Amino acid sequence: MDRRGKALIKNMGILTISNFASKILVFLLVPLYTSTLTTAEYGIYDLAISTVSLLYPILTLNIVDAVMRFAMDKCHSVNNVALTGIQYIGCSTVIVTLFLLVINRLQLWQDITGLEPYIFLYFIFYALDQYFIQLAKALDKIADMGVAGTLGTAVMLTSNILFLIVFHWGLKGFFTANILAQAIPAIYLFLRLRFWRWIRGAKTDKQLHKEMLLYCTPLLASAVGWWINSGSDRYVVTFFCGVAANGLLSVAYKIPSILNTLQGIFIQAWQISAIGEYGKQDTAKFFGETFLVTNTLMCAACSWLIMLTRPLAHLLYASDFYTAWRYVPFLLVSSVFNNAAGFLGPILAAKKDSRSMALSAVYGAGTNLILNMILVYWIGVQGAAIATVIASFIIYQVRRSAVGKEIIINRYKIVTVTWLILLGQSVIEIYTHLWFIEAILMMLMLVLNQDNIINIFAKAKRALNNKEK
Q1: What is the mean pLDDT of residues 446-457?
Q2: Of 45, 107, 343, 353, which sees the most CB atoms within 10 A?
Q3: Sequential DSSP letters for 157-202
């Protein structure tokens, strides 16, 4: 295994230790949520957090992505980059304060009346946490990111149990637990990075400011597009089917969160490797081989989870939430497409081609929004899951076209056939549940990808042998 592969695996290892095991523990808290909160309460929480996820990139102009990218460039002062980023975070806090005051005074959103202070605190600490994560990534402080992730999950676990079971605080306790889960990691990274040193003596560089805005402004469209693809279905489902139905959809996302966790760990490590290796010899081949490996692993995990959807739903969902299992298979496949699109994102970031990332998100968002309104009206909540699958694939296709020769993927037809198999398995699971046909499809998928699987085991064996030496 060459240096590039070792560096990627090292970063993934650190992030996996800090994220995967802890995220699995959080995943196991789903029965707690579904037994202590009503479908309506969970739907309200999900809509509030989705709104924060929309406001965050808009109000900060998605500056944290520029912080990470420009802080990695040796031609720019890290101090000046860090100062520019925190200035935008500060301005966004003022704006969100005014926004929530107007919402409260005019009673524009009665479902969140009384929850405005919680939403305010969640926004602040979420923004700071994202900022410090990107700065730590740029400074190659991966171990500190790992510790911060572990701290955040530990806090979420203990505070959820304390506030929901011991104190019976209900929805407000759920909000408080999630606020603390953002605040503690942010404070830890602030101290570990000695953030005050990075802004001490920093100056407002107008040229740098302009370059960062030119880079991140198209990414704002990308971020909003991703939000529409993953969050707009909540609002459409609430409008057509009610807030309780949105609670079911929100819970349905919990099983795909396993794949999303794997994806998030990899993308964080891959972002560093893709930017660091961009432009060097044989990078297109390296990118292609890495894509095939990650896609094979994601597809295998997706296939297993589709087969286990109903048993997992029995285990995780309380009675009122159980029917949410029907929306899980298509959401799992959308996670596979999102992983493929997410893989290409750092390559486009290395090219500083934020325009293509923005276009992909805009096309996906437009498709998702239109299909959501048509399909949810026509077939209900399942329409939102189908719309998400189609939009995720479109985002991937646009990015694949934009990357071009920067990545060389051999045997690409096998990738396409594998994805079609997953879609077929999803249809069977939802509408017939003929498990033996699903098993046959899974075996077919593994046979088609046997070369990639052999390659994965060979690389793992070499890595273990090198470690022993």
Answers
A1: 83
A2: 343
A3: HHHHIIIIIIS--HHHHHHHHHHHHHHHHHHHHHHHTTHHHHHTT-
Structure tokens belonging to residue 357: 């990332």
Containing 441, the helix (H) or strand (E) segment is helix 435-448
Q: Which sign, positive or negative, has the C-alpha torsion 189, 190, 192, 197? A: positive
Residue 20 lies in a domain: yes
Q: For the residues of 110-134, what is the DSSP string, one character each?
A: GGGTT-HHHHHHHHHHHHHHHHHHH
Other CB atoms within 10 Å distance of the CB of residue 55: 20
Q: Please give the residue range of the domain that contains residue 294.
A: 3-463
Instruction: Flag whether the pTM goes above 0.85.
Output: no
d(CA 209, CA 91): 15
Helices (H) and strands (E) in the chain, counts: 20, 0
For 205-222, letters b (16+ CB in 10 Å) and e give beebbebbeebbbbbbbb
468 assigned to some structural domain: no
CA-to-CA distance for 355 and 349, rounded, in angstroms? 10
pLDDT in tens, 238-288: 889 988 888 889 888 888 877 877 776 666 656 555 555 555 666 788 788
Residue 190: partners with Cβ closer than 8 Å, 6 or more residues away? 128, 132
d(CA 84, CA 74): 17
SS3 string, 407-440, reads CCCCCHHHHHHHHHHHHHHHHHHHHCCCHHHHHH
Q: Do 123 and 57 contact (CB within 8 A), yes or no?
A: no
C-alpha 271/C-alpha 349 separation (Å) is: 8
Q: Is 469 part of any domain? A: no
Q: CA–CA separation, 376 vs 384, rounded Å?
A: 6
In sequence order, the 6+-apart residues with CB closer than 8 A to the CB of 11 are 142, 268, 269, 272, 273
Encoded tokens for 117: 């202070």
User: What is the enclosing helix (H) or strand (E) of 316?
Assistant: helix 309-316
Q: For residue 52, what are its two tokens?
A: 């924060």
| 404 dihedral zone (left: phi>0; alpha: psi -120 to 50; beta) | left
Q: Is the pLDDT of residue 397 over 80?
A: yes
Structure tokens at 89: 């975070």
Query: Count of domains in the chain?
Result: 1
φ, ψ at 108 (rounded to 5°): -80, -20
**Alpha-carbon 320 to chain mean position:** 27
Does residue 59 lie within any of the structural domains?
A: yes
Greater confidence (306 vs 265) lies with: 306
